Amino acid sequence: MPELPDVEGFRRTFDRYAAGKTVGSVHVDRGVARNATPQAIGRALKGRSLSRSDRKGKWLICATDGATLLLHFGMTGDLIWNAEDHPHNRMTLELDDGDLVFRDMRKLGGVWIARDAGELDQTLARVGPDAVKVSKKEFLERVSRRRGSIKSALMDQTVVSGLGNLTVDESLWRARIAPKRAAASLSDDELPALNRSVNSVLRSASKVGHVPGRRGWLTGARDRSGACPRCGARLERATVAGRTTYWCPSCQT
DNA sequence: GCTCATGTTCCCCT
DNA sequence: CAGGGGAACATGAG
Description:
A hairpin with a 2-residue loop joins strand 9 (236-240) and strand 10 (243-247). Helix 1 packs parallel to helix 7 and helix 6 packs across helix 7. Strands 1-6-7-5 form a 4-stranded antiparallel β-sheet. It has a 4-stranded antiparallel β-sheet with strand order 2-3-4-8, with helices on both faces. By secondary structure, it is an alpha+beta fold. It has helices spanning 4-17, 38-45, 117-123, 136-144, 150-155, 165-174, 190-208, 218-223, and strands spanning 26-28, 50-56, 59-64, 68-72, 77-81, 89-95, 98-104, 110-114, 236-240, 243-247. It is built from 8 helices and 10 strands. It binds a DNA duplex through residues 1-3, 5-6, 31, 58, 72-77, 88, 104-109, 146-149, 152, 155, 157, 164-167, 210-211, 219, 239, 241-244.
C-alpha cells in the first residue's frame, strides 16, 4: 500500500488518535526494529508524550517530549488504531485510551528511534525533498539533472521523496509522457506539466489515503480493463526501472 | 509448484 | 561516479 498518499493517511490516523497521548507499555517485534533493539525502543518511548506527527516522503515522523519515533511502511505496512490481534501486528503502543498498532505482513518496513536531532538527520539523510512540498523550480532542477529514464528519476527517493510505482505511472500518464523517456529529454513544457501532474495525483490520492483504483485513473485500468481511460488504447506493460510499469502507447510519447 | 506484489538496499557491471 | 539489472529481505495471494 504505502506511497506518499497512504502515509499521509497514517499521519492523520496518528494525529487523530495518538497525538497528545502518553505512551504506556510498548511491544516491538525484533523483525521490524531497525536501529535499536525492541527493548531500547520501548525504553525510549515509555512514559513519553506524543506530539503531532510529520511526514517526509514515505516516512512518518513521530516526535515526543524525548526521542523521535520514525516509521517506514515498506510494501505492506499499515497504522491502525485499536487493531484486533493479528499475526502481522509488529508494534503496539499502549496509549491512554487504546492501542496504536503498526502492522506489516512482509516486514519490509520498520521502526527507528532517533534520540536527538543528529540521529534524526542521519536516518533521513538520503531522503530528498518531499514531492508535494518541493518548489517547482527545485523539482525541475532535480529531475532534469538525471541521466536515466524519467520513471527511474521519479522513483528515486533521493531526487524527490514520496512517489512510488503507482503514483509515478499515474503522474506520467496524466502528463502524457512515456516512462522510458530520458529525464533530460523532457521539454520546457513537459517538465512543468509533469510537476503539475505529480502534485495533482498526490493531492487527490492523499485525500482518500491511497491511490484510488477509480475509473479515470490509470491505476484502475491496470488491473481491470487494461485499456487507457483517456483514449481506449490497449495499455502497454513492461519492466521499467525494475518495476512493472503500465502506460498508454497511444497518448504517452 | 509457480509468479507477482503500492519498497529499499546492496552488489556487480557497463 | 551514475545508472541499469538482479538478488535479497519476508510473507502471502492468485
